[in-house]
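Researcher: Please translate sequence to structure tokens.
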Amino acid sequence: MQNILRILILCIGISVIACQERNIPEPKAVAVFTTPDSVKTLYREITSDTIIKNIYSGSTTDYRIMNMWRISNGATLTIEAGVNLQVVQNGGIFVSDGAALKILGTATNPVNITGQSKTKGFWNGIIFENTSNPSNELNHVVIEYAGGNTTSNMFYSAALALVNAHVQLNNASIRNNKIYGVSFDSTSVLNLESCTITANDSNPVLATHVNFMLHATNCNLLGNGNDKILVRSIANVTGNLNQQITYTDLPYLITGTARYASALTLAPNTRLIMGKLSSFYFNNDAGNAAIIGSGTFTQPIRIEGEKPDSGYWQGIVMHAGGQVQLNYCRIVGAGTAADFGYQGSGAALMVSGGQPGNLLVENCTIENAFFNGIIIDTAAVNYNSNIETINTFINIKNLPVVYY
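Model: Translation complete:
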């Protein structure tokens, strides 16, 4: 018997040493907030895994967030079904440094995050920054009366803001917020499934020209102050990410000059609304620039000014060759775009040389162009020979097509 005990002790010792040698980490401590006596206040930074449980039934507030509550250090904050969170003025939730926010609401027991006062912009919102943690998943949650952040970073002014972050939203309702519903910057990924973003003062979604790929399925983004996806062009920043725009339930409002050295692909029925003097500028010096719009007869692509005025926006420039493929595309209200080396008065669409390029424009309509319809550098750019007859040109001030 003693020999058996010695063997067992020896095995346990060997196991402990082996675990130490392999540096197996100890599980993180999990704090659970449950004491049912009054509204709990939350303000200390969360740096280890924490679970928040429902205390009271119905709509009674379980917890009150007292500041810009931080989750960091790779910790995961889990909020269980039925929890009601109330946020003080200028408070919010800030998830950073690889941490995660996981909300486990259900259809019958959603999680509610609201302001202490039912006033739009009363609290800041939820910000995800520098975290691609796969546990960033918000299920059956209501986020309301946020959007009060007034910092210089425009993305922070949304009720839910992503800055270099990846987040999945399922069955979320983002409503009654000041300015934007959700925002995501050029290095973020936002996935929406069966979500509603409504009754927000401005746009449901804010993005940048570098990345405005919105992944949304079975969502309702109507009923806001401006039912367009706002795409702000960042000055002097060139997009290098190949983008495929597939969400077409709402139009995109493009502001400023959207610069690309990459490919932009537009799905049928895509509608781009161009702001005053806005434009698309593709630089093909690296050989990767392209704009591909494959519309159909019943679902054409529309690129048109926010107002119907001739020359309201500048147009589309493809510099140094590149690939332009447009089919069943309607371009309205442009006509002042020009590129280096050409001294004319511009066009709605211009493809310059410098290196080989390909231009294929078929079944398109160019309308209300301020000067020319299309300008082509024929020395370097291959183009379809029927470009003048297979397309429709309406109210062009000068020539439908200029060859130089």
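Researcher: Any highlights?
Model: The first strand starts at residue 31 and ends at 33.
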